[in-house]
Amino acid sequence: xxxxxxxxxKKEEFKPIEANKVKMYACGPTVYNYFHIGNARxxxxxxxxxxxxxxxxxxxxxxxxxxxxxxxxxxxxxEDNSSFKQIAKKYIAAFQEDTEKLGIRKxxxxxxxxxxxxxxxxxxxxLENKGFAYEVKGDVYFSVESFKDYGMLxxxxxxxxxxxxxxxxxxxxxHPADFTLWKKAKPDEPTWNSPWGQGRPGWHSECxxxxxxxxxxxxxxxxxxxxxxxxxxxxxxxxxAQALSNKPLANYWMHNGFINIEGEKMSKSLNNFFTARDIxxxxxxxxxxxxxxxxxxxxxxxxxxxxxQESDTAVKNFYSALKSINFTSRDEEVNYSDxxxxxxxxxxxxxxxxxxxxxxxxxxxxxxKTIKSTKENEENRKQAANLLVELxxxxxxxxxxxxxxxxxxxxxxxxxxxILIDIRNSAKENKNWALSDKIRDELLKEGIQLLDTKDGTxxxxx
RNA sequence: GGCGACAUCGCCAAGUGGUAAGGCAGAGGUCUGCAAAAUCUCCAUCCCCAGUUCGAAUCUGGGUGUCGCCUCCA
Length: 462
Description:
Elements: E1 2-5, E2 10-13, E3 21-26, H1 37-55, E4 59-64, H2 71-79, H3 84-101, H4 117-129, E5 133-136, E6 139-142, E7 179-184, E8 199-201, H5 204-215, E9 220-226, H6 230-245, E10 250-256, E11 259-261, E12 264-265, H7 276-282, H8 285-293, E13 301-303, H9 305-324, H10 338-352, H11 357-372, H12 378-394, H13 401-405, H14 411-429, H15 433-445, E14 448-453, E15 456-461
Parallel strand pairs: 3-4, 3-9, 9-10, 11-13
Antiparallel strand pairs: 1-2, 5-6, 6-7, 7-8, 11-12, 14-15
Helix pairs in contact: 2-3, 5-6, 8-9, 9-11, 10-11, 11-12, 14-15
The protein binds one RNA strand of 74 nucleotides through helix 1, helix 6, helix 9, helix 11 and helix 15.
């Protein structure tokens, strides 16, 4: 399979470091707020990456950090008149809740930055000892000039950057591009003891420490995150790791594109900021997942109401197909005919090509069509349904299949419904259209759709 | 100013040298009391210009446009 690697700016054949194993790390949330729809994209996408590798038979180890020490958290604590620990605790819980609702599986490891302060200090100390870092008045900086490959990931040459163009130049730094590894304590901030006095770590070290610790290696297979992290975050992570080990932190760097809102960048000043939590109130998790996967992960994607509506309809399509043949659960032992093996191959070929999920989805639509088609024989429709669920599951759909397919209303409701259907049918026989339509319309309002088929009146939950 | 990405039907979106997948929306026919569902049919020459080639949405050059990064934003 091929993966686009930010490091080489090419699609490359994926070769794991250890045969049949994938070690991957994706940057997690900074817990100072509910995460927004833009944060959700990489969470969902790397969940799919993980699933797909497992589907291909790899043993995957997936780690993701939680940044619980950061300026933004401290600021939020001041704003809310709370403590930084309480803020972190609150939003970690919210993060867990929302990702679960989105159907994202928990990574194998999900450590917090605060758990590894000792190891972060050791990393910085090692960098200092080897001449890659220097201390100025209690702050420690990484010296970009000491690491000759600085810029290898982002393609930036440090001398091209306009120092201080957008941020005030820090006069303590030897070079404007030098970044902070350790910050001297300020009043009312959480601090830890260190060789440089009281302080706290900068943002870029935690991911180095956590990834290497939990993936148990200096250099692992895949590192992921949003494109905005390429520079400076990932560049700086890599610089620290490679300065010490002479190897890149990861072999493949994958970056997802941004989400725009109605064509504009999402930002607080434009007030077009949507949290995943809010969107989940309006649309179900699978519609959100479909929205993300309907476009290639590296492309920017526009979020708006009509596209969410379409995504919702599209997902319902899969379910109505499955309902049309009373599909209940997947048969894992099924032997697909050549025709469906071919469909499966199409799906795999699409996914092997740098996770072309949009194309993979078209295979699913194709299967849905086969399932619904009255021209197909029973066996083909069954196989198509089975394969639809198999492939859809790789993309994270159909997690509550049984519940979604169930038409179970409970005893009394079922009886009442069949009484209503009987009354309606009598009304129809008497050509009392007003009454029969009223029953149909009222039931639809309650989410029950009646279908007058040749085999009598059927119904399904909308 | 530096670096980079993208431009395909009303909307979303595949396609990476061989004559434009798919989804949503829409139009018409069949079916239906009417709907829904099902079913059949219809619906683009790919931002512009030039070039390479037997052949280009796909390669090259030049435009135009949109967007991103260059700040501890996914």
